[in-house]
Amino acid sequence: MPPKRRPTALSRSTPARRSPSQARSEQTVLIIFEATAQVLDEHGEAALTTNRIAEQAGVSIGTLYQYFESKEAIVLAMLARERAQLMNTLDTLLAGVNSGGRDPGGSDPRMVLRTFVRRYVEAFGTGTPGRRALIKLAWKLDHHQVFVQSLREASERIALHIGRIAHPSLRSPSPAIAFVLTRLLAGTVRSAALEDSPLLGTAEFEDALVNACWGVMQAIH
Q1: In a domain, 5, yes or no
Q2: Is the pTM of this model over 0.70?
Q3: Cβ(125)–Cβ(192) below 8 Å
Q4: Could you tell me if 83 and 184 are in contact, meaning their C-beta atoms sit under 8 angstroms apart?
Q5: 94, part of any domain
Q6: Are 152 and 183 in contact (CB under 8 A)?
Q7: Which of residues 69, 89, 105 is at a domain's end?
Q8: Which residues of 151-186 are buried (b: 16+ CB within 10 A; e: fewer)?
Q9: Residue 13 domain flag
Q10: Other CB atoms closer than 10 Å to residue 135's CB: what's the count?
């Protein structure tokens, strides 16, 4: 077995060391992701180590370290992938909003907000025990640049799209409003996930989030 490479500090690294440009590399990364989720699902966060992940994935520890320098780097890469997919969803939803839903091909901004809130909670708050363990571990690492950047991107996209919506009660948000809106959503879901709140996934929780976010959006003058 190749010698274990000593990882450097997470704060000085990027989640993935080698870009998976070839089909085999992409497959290896996906296998490592699946193995990480399986270890968390079957054994919990305390059992998550790079050695256990490599064993579950059926790859050598040396191969794993060619792609990721630590278990934290794997988790960050998995969540970065999830967040990229969620941002694509946000773009699609917001791009379809127009004139408060008066056009049959458009959508009511409030319903779009509800759909996005629901998908955000599903992505970063609920799921199988293994997925929830992954989410909790990821939220503990949310100071990392990957998470900060994703929130900035969400703020920018929301501001851009809301500015294009012809709705009587909505205006293009200022940077401060966009900041508050995105952190309100992310911060609430983060707290609920870390506390294992039974409210996660309930209609009551969704309604409260939607009403709070909509209130911030309507406060724009």
Answers
A1: no
A2: no
A3: yes
A4: no
A5: yes
A6: no
A7: 69
A8: beebbebbbebbeebebeebbebeeebbebbbeebb
A9: no
A10: 24
- 87 and 42, same structural domain? no
Please count the CA atoms within 13 angstroms of the CA of 77 that sit on its side-chain side: 25
Q: In which residue are the tokens 């690492």 written? A: 141
- Are 86 and 42 found together in one domain? no
User: Are the C-beta atoms of 127 and 117 separated by less than 8 Å?
Assistant: no
N-terminal to C-terminal alpha carbon distance within the chain: 63
Q: Read off the pLDDT of residues 117-157 as tens digits, 9 standing for 90 and up.
A: 888 888 778 877 777 787 777 777 765 566 667 677 777 77
Closest CA to 9 of 72, 78, 66, 76: 72
The CATH number covering residue 39 comes to 1.10.10.60
Contact (CB, 8 A) for 61 and 50: yes
In-domain check, residue 1: no
With tokens 């724009």, the residue in question is 220
Nearest 5 degrees, angle CA 156-CA 158-CA 163?
A: 100
* Residue range(s) defining the domain that contains residue 184: 74-219
By residue count, the chain amounts to 221
Count the domains in the chain: 2
Q: What is the CATH number of the domain that holds 108?
A: 1.10.357
- Write the CB contacts of 7 (distance below 8 Å, at least 6 apart in sequence): 13, 65, 69, 70, 73
Kindly report, residue by residue over 67-100, the tens digit of the pLDDT. Answer: 999 998 998 888 888 878 877 877 777 776 654 4
